[in-house]
Amino acid sequence: MKPSELLNVIEAEFGDFILESSDQGFDPYIVVEPDALRDVSFFLRDDERMKFDFLRTSLGTDKIDFIESLFVLYSYELKHQLIVKVELSHKNPEVDTVSDIWKAANWYERESYDLLGINYKDHPDLRRLMMPHDWVGHPLLKDYKSPKKYHGMDLYRFNPVLKVTKKKAKKKK
Amino acid sequence: MSNITEKEVFFDEMTLNMGPHHPSTHGVLRFVLKTDGEILKTAIPDVGFLHRSIEKIAESLPYPQFFPYTDRVDYLAAMNANHAYAVAVEKLLGIEVPERAEYIRVLVAEMNRIASHMVGVGSLASDLGAFTPFLFNLRDREYLYDYLEEMCGARLTYNYLSIGGVHRDLKQETADKILKFVEQGIKNLDEFNRLIAYNKIFLRRLAGVAVVNKKTCIEYGIVGPNLRAAGLKYDVRKDQPYSIYDKLDFDIPVGEAYAASDGGVIGDAYDRFMVRIKEMEQSYKIIKQVLKEIPEGEIQAKVPRKLKPPVGDIYVPTESARGEMGYYIFSDGTDKPWRLKIRTGSFSAMSAFEEISNGYFIADLVSAIGSFDIVAPEVDR
Amino acid sequence: MESITNSLIQSWGITSSTGAQLVSLLVMLAFSAVVLIPFFLPFAGITSWLERRIAGRMQSRVGPNINGPQGFLQWIADGVKAMEKEDLMPDDADKPLFKVAPYFVFMGVGATLVAIPFSEYLVLSDLNVGIFYIISVTSFVTVGILLAGWSSNNKWSLIGGVRSASQMISYEIPTALSILTVVLLTGSLSMQDIVKAQGFWPWQWHISNNPFMIVMFFIFFISALAEGSRTPFDLPEAESELVSGYNTEYSGIRFAMFFLAEWGNLFVIGAMTTVLFLGGWQAPVALQGSIWNTPVQFIIFMTKMSAVVFIVIQLRWTLPRVRVDQLMIICWHYFVPLSLLSILAVTIWMALSYGHSALELGMSIFSAAIWLYFVFLVLFRAVRNFKKTNAKLNLNFLE
To answer: Does B180 touch chain C (CB under 8 A)?
Structure first.
């Protein structure tokens, strides 16, 4: 199905819940209201015209104004692609999980939780994936500052070059 | 895991730590195994030991400077990772790559795919106790690495591709050598097959082990040779062609229960092994074609000094040795990506382990890890 | 051995009983010093060198070639290195058991040498229950490995130890049954008698007594591989599965002892196969009966044994490992019934052919032809495969 037709079908089905949709960019995408994500997801997976059975990847982004969680879908049978985006507030980045709809989302959501702090409701096993389990903070947020030490281990190495350049800068002043 | 309850003791459940420095967890993987004697109940993967925050680093680097990091995502098929990133950035910027450069890219990518599969199938054999086939493959891989070194000066992490082309031209001398190797390489692959692939013990060890059917593969997003072994004929090179793959003639091998005589079914470990072997044959075929058809001309497109792509986001899938490798790039109009995400094949294969590892022997887990050809840095990035 | 001491006592003219005892004790000690320390240790060492060189050749690489001619002295360097290394011990290990386990393994292998006849006179002690003695003494290896696995306080080691115990106990049955057929043919448990019942020519060996002995030979050989935990049955120390099995926590000389025992075991497998099935030290009739023919007989014995060891090494570097359940299925579903059947067949054949020496000879030549055909087939296939690949052992096959 062509991208424009695809978006038309989805908008006809979930008119109010689709905040934005476009096929002008590189890939067609829709922005969904967070509350309607699960309904839309079920529709995308199960509908005869959609058949998005393959969740290619899922990620989160810190867009300063909001946090965006998105996933890229592909249909092996109908060979079309769609990106589904959800915009979440910084204060309470919470959205329903889709890990029971596409099992692949399980680890991607854990990763997004780990690196961006997005809270996926009803996720079966929402633990940190990459970082140590007692790590503080979510590194991929734009305002993230890494701690100086972790369990007494230095996280920054002494950089002799940096020291010399700083001294030179001081002397110039 | 630490507090063992009375119930667990009563049911003879043993918690075993496999890794992070276990010989058959290639790289640094860790599994927490719950076993009843030798029989697995679950194997819970614990990843993150090789997390080098490549995605965070990407946010602070201009587009061309990120190339060396892509090598480190998958050290066994670094050229494919290079290629994936180059294709993604070029599509974002709308750059046309000269045809000769495209041919060279495909050549090196396929050479690296063969090298990676050599390690993949070889280490599977060595995990099962047969060490000689592994070294046979390493011997052949040395030649491929020698030629790659002649082309770009490095053997493992190349940094060979640039945005809009490749860094150095392919010499005729090297091309001749590669062509000569391809002839011998096919023979050596046959030797490898006769040594291990048709070995009865090997067949019996892999047939019907760690079966992942088509449905599970699609659900978990398992890609690449592992998906094709489950019987789904899907290859990014054919279905969403990039570079010059649409001009080349090659087949996509799929799993057909190759070990059916020993109780194998479609999608078992032996199919994954065999699909890789057949894919190597196809890659040799591609290399031959590329070397025959390679045109003369430029190897580098005109690219502005400071790359400033338009605002937007893009996902470009490519076929790496371990399946679909895609770069999701958010661009905010500056010369650095706002956010970059690498989608790798090992990650999705690893996420499926908890489900597929049920009820097998510990020895089967080893062959399962080997047959999925998981490379730890690709999981953690 | 007794004959040597007796002849010495007579030639030196010693008459008193204490003097005779003293001389026999001295000779025994000298012999064990000669055989055990500078013979067994180097043999295990040389086997290790041999294994590494053959493996190197098979894998298109070089192998140890620096120390000594062709790297022949590599095993000494390795031994010295192992001795100098720190003897590490896990904190929570069962310390006495952990310390004593390698000795059990080493002793189990070393003690078998007592009963192995290297030539007509070169045998430490020709026990009248020699074969029994060897079977029982090798069980020490199981005990040692189980102890090592248990006392390391490491779950991987424990799995290795338990695997080893179950494997060795299972495979002891087909081994013993196949030895039993040889004992039936000979009518004696003594190793020397078993060798003496055979002859120099291939059709006089026990393997070609009748076709069922070929089956027994294969069962014995494969079971011996399993008992010595060599590939394809190296499950107790499966490197890629159990890290290193029972010897994971060992280091230094204790670790070296496990490996000496392993290579010694290789030697024992070869020696046992040679003695039981391949005619032992049997030389042509002209070269028997005198103590001066010992070198010839010894060389014949060593040649046969080396051939067996060579095959074992080749198998080690060719085959993958079987799984635990497959291992047990091979033993209990195939080997045990097959060996019981073979015993029955051998007994029936013995009863039928009793007194018909021409029939016996005919059958011997027939079965010798069968197994020689198999040997020829293997060689033929090897050569054909070699030609097919056009592979050269030379590393630069493109030039």
So the answer is: yes
Please state, in angstroms and rounded to a whole number, the distance separating the CA atoms of residues C155 and C167.
18
Which residue from A143, A142, A122, A147 is spatially nearest to A132, judged by alpha carbons? A147
Is there a single domain that holds both residue B26 and residue B174? no
Residues of B in Cβ contact (< 8 Å) with A55: 221
Same domain, B114 and B16: no
Q: The whole model's pTM is what?
A: 0.85
Per the CB < 8 Å rule, is C59 touching B131? Answer: yes
- Is B9 at the interface with chain C, CB within 8 A? no
CATH number of A3-172: 3.30.460.80
Looking at residue A146, its pLDDT comes to 81
Contact indicator for A18, A34 with CB cutoff of 8 Å: no
CA distance C218 to chain B (A): 17
Residue-level pLDDT at B7: 52
**Neighboring chain B residues of A72 at a CB cutoff of 8 Å:** 315, 326, 328
The vertex-C178 CA angle with C177 and C181, nearest 5°, equals 90
Please compute the mean of the pLDDT values over residues A86-108 and round it to a whole number.
86
From chain C, pick out residues whose CB is under 8 angstroms from the CB of B126. 240
The per-residue pLDDT for range C158-212, each reduced to its tens digit, is: 888 888 888 888 888 898 888 888 888 888 888 888 888 888 888 888 888 888 8
Q: Helices (DSSP H) in chain B: which residue ranges?
A: 6-10, 54-58, 67-73, 78-93, 99-127, 132-152, 172-192, 200-206, 214-220, 225-229, 236-239, 269-293, 345-351, 353-356, 362-372, 376-380
Please tell me which of the candidates C58, C234, C395 has its beta carbon nearest to residue B129: C234
Give kind and range of the element (H or E) at residue C310. helix C294-316
Quick check: C238 and B363 CB within 8 A?
yes
Name the minimum distance, in Å, from the CA of C22 to any CA of chain B.
Answer: 52
Name every chain A residue with its beta carbon within 8 A of the beta carbon of B341.
57, 59
Chain-wide mean pLDDT for chain C?
Answer: 82
Please state the domain count of chain B: 2
What sign does the dihedral B99-B102-B104-B110 (CA atoms) show? negative
Q: Please give the backbone phi and psi of residue A141, each rounded to the nearest 5 degrees, phi first.
A: -70, 145
Contacts of residue A70, defined as CB under 8 A and 6 or more positions apart, other chains included, come to A29, A58, A59, A60, A61, A83, A84, A85, A86
d(CA C381, CA C378): 5
Kindly state the tokens that stand for A5: 């037709």
Amino acid (one-letter) located at B130: A
Q: CB contacts < 8 Å between A and B, how many?
A: 78
CB contact under 8 A, C58 and B194: no
Confidence at residue B114, expressed as pLDDT on a 0 to 100 scale: 92
Domain with B143 in it: what CATH number? Answer: 1.10.645.10
Q: What is the DSSP string of C108-144?
A: HHHGGGGG--SSSS--S---TTHHHHHHHHHHHHHHH
Q: What ipTM was assigned to the predicted interfaces of this complex?
A: 0.84
B34 close to C (CB below 8 A): no
The predicted structure's pLDDT at residue C395: 46
Give partners of C (≥3 CB pairs < 8 A): B
How is chain A split into domains, by residue range?
3-172
What stretches of C317-335 show up as alpha helix (H) in DSSP?
324-329
Contact, A60 vs A112, CB < 8 A? Answer: yes
Measured between CA atoms, the residue of chain C closest to residue B20 is: C243
Under DSSP, is residue B274 helix (H, G, I), strand (E, B) or coil? Answer: helix
Please answer whether residues C367 and C211 qualify as being in contact, where contact means their C-beta atoms are separated by less than 8 angstroms.
Answer: yes
Of C159, C232, C318, the CB nearest to B38: C159
Q: What is the pLDDT of residue C391?
A: 54
Residue C302 neighbours by CB under 8 Å, 6+ apart: C118
Specify the residue for token string 């393959």.
A54
Judge if B81 and B194 occupy the same domain.
yes
